[in-house]
Specification:
- The protein has 18 helices and 25 strands.
- By secondary structure, the protein is of the alpha/beta class.
- The strands form 6 sheets. It has a 10-stranded mixed β-sheet with strand order 4-20-5-19-18-6-9-11-10-17, with helices on both faces. A 6-stranded mixed β-sheet has the order 1-25-24-23-22-21, with helices on both faces. It has a 3-stranded antiparallel β-sheet with strand order 12-16-15, with no helix packed on it.
- Helix 3 packs parallel to helix 6 (about 170-190) and helix 4 runs parallel beside helix 6.
- The longest helix has about 30 residues, at about 470-500.
Length: about 650
C-alpha cells in the first residue's frame, strides 16, 4: 500500500491551461485515439467515422495569413502575471462587483480564464479598426507579460513603441488578424452557453473579422451583421462615397444549446411601440381585446404539405372552401377545428369572405424581433458620442475619434441581458468607458443588477492630468457614478417624503462602484530557467533568493487576490477576515477556500482552520520554514479531513 504524501501540492501560479483541460476531456471521450500519450489523428478520424474527412485535400476553404501560427501560440502560452488591487483608485472597493482592469487585454483574458470561465453573458468590444493610425498593441506577441511590463514602465528597459500599420505594409491585414485572433479565442471561453458577443468594425476589416469569428465561434453561431448609421450627414471631403455606417458583428456562444434546434432565442425581443399597436383593433368587440388579422394560408403547395390541403366550411354561407393548391392552409385540420369554438376566425365585416383570417390578439404578442439596420436617430451617432466625452473631458476631443454613444450600448444591453439576473458584461477594448456608463445608467432606468468588467491598455495620451487612456476610463466612470449617486439620493429623499416612514431604503441598491486592478508581475518569485546562472555559485545564489518566494514590498491584499484569481474564483468573491488567536486568515466564497498569509504558522491556527471544514486551504510556503514536522503533520491532517491543501 502506498503511503500518502506528506508534501502539499505547490500552488500553480500560471494562468488556467485550457489546452491541457481540452486534452484531458478529449482523452476521456476517446482514450483509444491516444498512443504514447499523444493524439493519433488517424485513429481519431476512424473513431469519429463520417464526422471527419479521411483524406485532407491539398487545397481547402479557410482563412490563413502570415502570423496565424504565432497567434495560436499566443493562446497556448500561459501567463504568470497577476492583477494587483488598487483600492485608492476604486469606488466602493469592498462592496462593488464591477471591475476596471488596467493592462494588456491578451494577458488579462488569460488571467480571467479561471474565475470567469463560462460566466459572461455579453461581450461588447470596439477594437482598432486598422485604418492606418497608431496600432495600440505591440507587434511582438512572444514576450507577453514581459513586453507589457516594459510598455507600462513597471520594469526598466526600453519601452515598447506604438507603430503605425499602414496599407502599404505587406502585413497590413496580417498584423491586425494576429492581434485579434487570440483575444477572440480566449473571449469565447468566458461566455456563458447562452452568451453573445458584439464586435464593432468598419469596412477595412469587416470581411476578415467575419471569417475569423466563423472559425472561432462556428458559422452556425452567427446571429447577424448590424449596420449602424454612425453619421447623419455626408462628409464632403470624401472623394467618392461618404461612409455613413459601421458594422456590428454578432455571434452566439452556442446558438443551438448543444445539439438540435434552439429552444430559446439568444436575443430578447424589443418592446412594441404605440405606432405598432395601432394596427390592432376590435371590430367584433371580442372580450380578449384588440387583435390583428393574420394570413390563414402559407407558402407551401398541396404536394409539399398534403395534410394542410383540406376543405373548411364558410359558417355564414354554408359554402365548402378549399385553399389554392399552390398555397395551402397554415394550420392542420385538427388545429382548425379548435379555432372555430375559440372564435379565432374572421370572415370579414359582413361575414362573407371566401378565406378566413386568423385573429392574433395584442395581449398575446410578446415583442418585436430586432432588425439589422440601426438608424442614428434611434441609437445615436459618433458626433453625439464625442460630445458625451467632451462634456466630461473638454480637451479630449482629439483622443477619441470614433467613440460609441451610450444609447447604442444600451440598445445592445436591452437585447442581450436581463435586468434581474446579475448578467456580467465584458469589454476588453474599453476606451473611454462607454460600456460601463451604459450598464450603470441602464441599471438605474430599469432597476437592473448587471455587472461590468472593463479592460484598457494604459496607452499614453500626452496629457498631464490623464497621462493614459486607462486614467480617462476610470475617471469617466467615477463621474458617472457621482452623477448617478446624486440622482439616487434625490430619489430616496422623494421616497421618504412620499412614504413618511423616515429614512427608508429603496427596494434595491444600485451597484455604484468599481474595483480597480492593474496587470503586473506575480507577487511570488517565479523560477526563470533562462535567467538562471550556469555556474555553481550563481545557481546557489539564485536558490537562496528563491527560498523566500514572496516578492518584497507586496501587500497582503495583492497576495490575497492573486491566490483567489488563480484558484479559479472571481475577483469579486466574498471575503471575510477572521482570527484564530492572534493569527489572521481569510474565508473566501463562504468556505470554498481559506487563505492564510501569516509568515509563521502555529499548529493552533492550522487546526482551527481545519475545524471550519473549508474545501481548500492555501498557506505561504515560508510559513513552515524551519518546521518540516509541522508541515508533514498538517498535510496528513488536511488530507484526512478531505481538504485540498496547497502552499504558495
Amino acid at each position: 500500500m502506498t503511503e500518502p504524501t506528506a508534501n502539499p501540492e505547490n500552488f500553480n501560479l500560471a494562468s488556467r491551461d485550457n489546452l491541457a483541460e481540452a486534452n484531458v476531456e478529449l482523452r476521456r471521450l476517446f482514450p483509444a485515439a491516444y498512443t504514447q500519450g499523444k493524439v493519433d489523428f488517424e485513429k481519431l478520424r476512424q473513431l469519429l467515422g463520417d464526422d471527419v474527412t479521411a483524406d485532407v485535400p491539398a487545397e481547402r476553404y479557410g482563412l490563413s495569413w502570415t502570423g496565424k501560427s504565432d497567434a495560436i501560440k499566443a493562446i497556448q502560452t500561459l501567463t504568470t502575471g497577476t492583477l494587483l488591487p488598487a483600492r485608492g483608485e476604486s469606488v466602493n472597493f469592498d462592496t462593488t462587483e464591477n471591475l476596471i482592469i488596467e493592462g494588456d487585454n491578451l494577458e488579462t483574458l488569460k488571467l480571467l480564464q479561471g474565475g470567469y470561465h463560462g460566466r459572461v453573458k455579453m461581450i461588447y468590444i470596439d477594437p482598432p479598426y486598422n485604418t492606418g493610425n497608431e496600432f495600440i498593441y505591440p507587434d511582438n506577441y512572444k514576450e507577453g507579460l514581459a513586453d507589457y511590463l516594459k510598455f507600462s514602465g513597471q520594469v526598466s528597459g526600453e519601452g515598447i513603441k506604438l507603430t503605425t500599420n499602414t496599407e502599404t505594409d505587406g502585413r497590413y491585414h496580417s498584423k491586425w488578424l494576429t492581434m485579434m485572433y487570440p483575444r477572440l479565442f480566449l473571449a469565447r471561453n468566458l461566455l456563458r452557453e447562452d452568451g453573445v458577443i458584439f464586435v464593432s468594425i468598419d469596412d477595412h476589416e469587416v470581411h476578415n473579422l467575419r471569417l475569423v469569428m466563423n472559425e472561432i465561434f462556428g458559422e452556425e453561431n452567427f446571429l447577424g451583421c448590424i449596420t449602424w448609421q454612425k453619421k447623419y450627414s455626408p462628409a464632403n471631403d470624401t472623394d467618392d462615397l461618404s461612409a455613413s455606417h459601421d458594422y456590428i458583428i454578432v455571434f452566439a456562444r452556442n446558438r443551438f444549446g448543444g445539439f438540435g434546434e434552439s429552444t430559446k432565442p439568444i436575443l430578447t425581443r424589443e418592446q412594441r411601440t404605440g405606432e405598432m399597436n395601432q394596427a390592432y383593433a376590435n371590430p367584433d368587440n371580442d372580450p380578449r381585446g384588440p387583435w390583428k388579422a393574420g394570413d390563414y394560408t402559407c407558402n407551401k403547395s398541396s404536394e409539399e404539405r398534403p395534410n394542410l390541403y383540406y376543405s373548411i366550411l364558410q359558417p355564414n354561407t354554408g359554402e365548402e372552401i378549399w385553399p389554392k393548391k399552390s398555397r395551402v392552409w397554415a394550420y392542420s385540420k385538427e388545429l382548425h377545428q379548435k379555432h372555430i369554438p375559440d372564435n379565432r376566425l374572421w370572415w370579414g365585416a359582413d361575414g362573407k369572405n371566401q378565406t378566413p383570417a386568423y385573429k392574433r390578439f395584442l395581449s398575446e404578442v410578446e415583442g418585436v424581433v430586432a432588425q439589422t439596420v440601426w438608424l442614428w436617430n434611434e441609437v445615436g451617432h459618433t458626433d453625439g458620442a464625442k460630445k458625451e466625452v467632451v462634456k466630461m473631458f473638454p480637451d479630449a476631443s482629439n483622443i477619441f475619434e470614433t467613440p460609441k454613444p451610450v444609447s447604442l450600448l444600451q440598445k445592445i444591453l436591452s437585447l442581450s441581458t436581463q435586468k434581474s439576473e446579475n448578467d456580467l458584461i465584458l469589454d476588453f477594448f474599453a476606451g473611454s468607458g462607454t460600456t460601463a456608463q451604459a450598464v450603470l445608467e441602464q441599471n438605474q432606468q430599469d432597476d437592473g443588477n448587471r455587472k461590468f468588467i472593463l479592460v484598457q491598455l494604459p496607452e499614453p495620451t500626452d496629457r498631464k492630468d490623464y497621462p493614459t487612456i486607462a486614467e480617462i476610463t476610470k475617471e469617466r466612470v467615477r463621474r458617472v457614478i457621482k452623477k448617478l449617486s446624486a440622482a439616487e439620493m434625490q430619489k430616496r429623499r422623494e421616497e421618504k417624503a412620499q412614504l413618511k416612514l423616515g429614512d427608508a431604503p429603496s427596494a434595491r441598491e444600485l451597484d455604484l462602484g468599481f474595483k480597480v486592478f492593474r496587470l503586473g508581475s506575480s507577487n511570488f518569485k517565479v523560477w526563470d530557467a533562462a535567467a538562471t546562472p550556469k555556474d555553481a555559485a550563481g545557481l546557489a545564489e539564485q536558490l537562496k533568493l528563491m527560498a523566500h518566494n514572496v516578492v518584497e514590498n507586496r501587500a497582503d491584499d495583492a497576495l490575497l487576490y492573486e491566490l483567489i484569481l488563480k484558484s479559479n474564483l472571481p475577483l469579486t468573491s466574498k471575503i471575510q477576515s477572521d482570527k484564530i488567536g492572534n493569527q489572521s486568515f481569510y474565508d473566501v466564497a463562504d468556505g470554498t477556500l481559506v487563505i492564510c498569509l501569516e509568515r509563521k504558522l502555529t499548529q493552533e491556527t492550522l487546526r482551527g482552520i481545519i475545524a471550519r471544514k473549508p474545501r481548500g486551504v492555501i498557506c505561504l510556503d515560508i510559513a513552515f520554514a524551519g518546521n518540516d514536522q509541522l508541515k508533514t503533520n498538517i498535510v496528513l491532517e488536511m488530507k484526512s479531513h478531505g481538504i485540498e491543501f496547497h502552499t504558495a
